[in-house]
């Protein structure tokens, strides 16, 4: 299980970095990450990212709640980003 | 130096507004008086290679809330605007509108977009003026915007109107009424 979490962390950071390289605004909105965090990740080397991801706790938080999960599962795929955007958790 | 920084900030925001085809009266409302109206017109023409369109700006709140789909789009706009303000991404009012609109653009695929920047400006302005507000649905947990001046518009959750949950039995209302302990023996 800790290996899975570390792999998730690494994957999250790599996808964030990849998207931020191409479109920083989209990275901010899709990941819900502040611009300063994205700028820091962009400045990091691959080794530093691997080191950061080597953590047994998740580095990112879920954007969904137990209440919203049933509605998200039932929604068409194109509508899910909107539901995540209007979930109370996302606004908090 | 401060004046130069302010000027450069306004220049970049003015360019962003022109790229989103914000009409001159909209830009006039969002930008400070130190940015001349002549520059706004010139910049619009320079960026878009055409004159700004004429005609009335949006003026009716109801058109933003008359179907569940429109209400969902309006809610996404307002939630994005709230996030921009809470996270302190920018203190600049025009910048906050631009960031919220970019978040809206990132949320919906292009053919599904309903609002352009001018419509976004009108609705977020109504939100700032507290004519519309956000509420949380107790059933699904999502937020929705409603018209504060129209009581018939209250408790109209767009998510509940658009989606039937996978397991509707799991809800806030019956979460506690599950297991009754059996008597011993």
Write the layout of secondary structure elements.
The complex is a heterodimer of chains A (92) and B (185).
Chain A: H1 2-22, H2 24-31, H3 35-43, H4 46-53, H5 69-74, H6 80-86, H7 88-91
Helix pairs in contact in A: 1-2, 1-3, 1-4
Chain B: H1 2-19, H2 24-30, H3 37-48, H4 68-86, H5 93-107, H6 117-128, E1 132-136, E2 143-147, H7 158-162
Antiparallel strand pairs in B: 1-2
Helix pairs in contact in B: 1-3, 4-5, 4-6
Can you put this structure into words, describing what you see?
The complex is a heterodimer of chains A (about 90) and B (about 180). By secondary structure, chain A is mainly α. Chain A folds into 2 domains: about 1-60, Flagellar transcriptional activator FlhD (Flagellar transcriptional activator fold), CATH 1.10.4000.10; about 65-90, no CATH class. Chain A has 7 helices and no strands. In chain A, helix 1 packs across helix 3 and helix 1 (about 1-20) packs antiparallel against helix 4 (about 45-55). The model of chain A has no long low-confidence stretch (mean pLDDT about 85). Chain B is mostly helical and about 180 residues long. Chain B is about 50% helix and about 5% strand. A two-stranded antiparallel sheet of chain B has the order 1-2. The longest helix of chain B is centred in the middle third of the chain and has 19 residues, at about 70-85. The radius of gyration of chain B is 21 Å and the shape is elongated. At the A-B interface, helix 2, helix 5, helix 6 and helix 7 of A face helix 4 and helix 5 of B.
Low-confidence stretches of chain A: none
Largest sheet: spatial strand order of chain B: 1-2
Report Rg of chain A: 14 Å
Beta-strand content bin of chain A: under 5%
Distance between the termini of chain A: 29 Å
Q: Kindly state the mean pLDDT of chain A as a whole number?
A: 86
Q: What is the architecture of the largest domain in chain A at the second tier of CATH?
A: Orthogonal Bundle
Radius of gyration of chain B: 21 Å
The tally of domains of chain A stands at 2
**Quaternary structure of the protein:** heterodimer
């Amino acid at each position: 299980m800790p290996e899975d979490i570390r792999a998730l962390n690494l994957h999250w950071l790599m996808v964030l970095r990849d998207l931020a390289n191409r479109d920083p605004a989209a990275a901010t909105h899709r990941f819900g990450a502040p611009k300063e965090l994205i700028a820091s990740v962009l400045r990091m080397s691959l080794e530093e990212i691997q080191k950061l991801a080597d953590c047994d706790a998740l580095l990112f938080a879920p954007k969904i709640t137990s209440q919203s999960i049933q509605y998200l599962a039932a929604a068409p795929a194109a509508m899910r980003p909107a539901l995540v955007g209007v979930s109370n958790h996302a606004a908090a | 130096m401060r004046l130069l920084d302010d000027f450069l900030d306004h220049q970049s925001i003015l360019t962003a507004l022109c790229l989103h085809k914000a009409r001159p009266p909209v830009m006039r409302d969002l930008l400070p008086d130190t940015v001349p109206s002549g520059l706004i017109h010139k910049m619009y023409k320079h960026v878009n290679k055409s004159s700004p369109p004429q005609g009335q700006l949006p003026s009716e709140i109801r058109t933003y809330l008359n179907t569940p789909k429109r209400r969902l789009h309006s809610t996404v706009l307002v939630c994005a605007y709230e996030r921009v303000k809470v996270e302190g991404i920018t203190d600049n009012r025009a910048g906050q509108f631009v960031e919220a609109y970019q978040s809206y653009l990132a949320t919906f695929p292009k053919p599904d977009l309903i609002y352009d920047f001018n419509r976004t400006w009108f609705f977020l302005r109504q939100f700032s003026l507290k004519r519309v507000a956000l509420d949380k649905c107790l059933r699904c947990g999502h937020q929705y915007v409603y018209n504060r001046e129209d009581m018939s518009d209250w408790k109209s959750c767009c998510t509940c109107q658009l989606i039937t949950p996978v397991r509707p039995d799991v809800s806030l209302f019956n979460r506690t009424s599950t297991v009754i302990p059996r008597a011993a023996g």
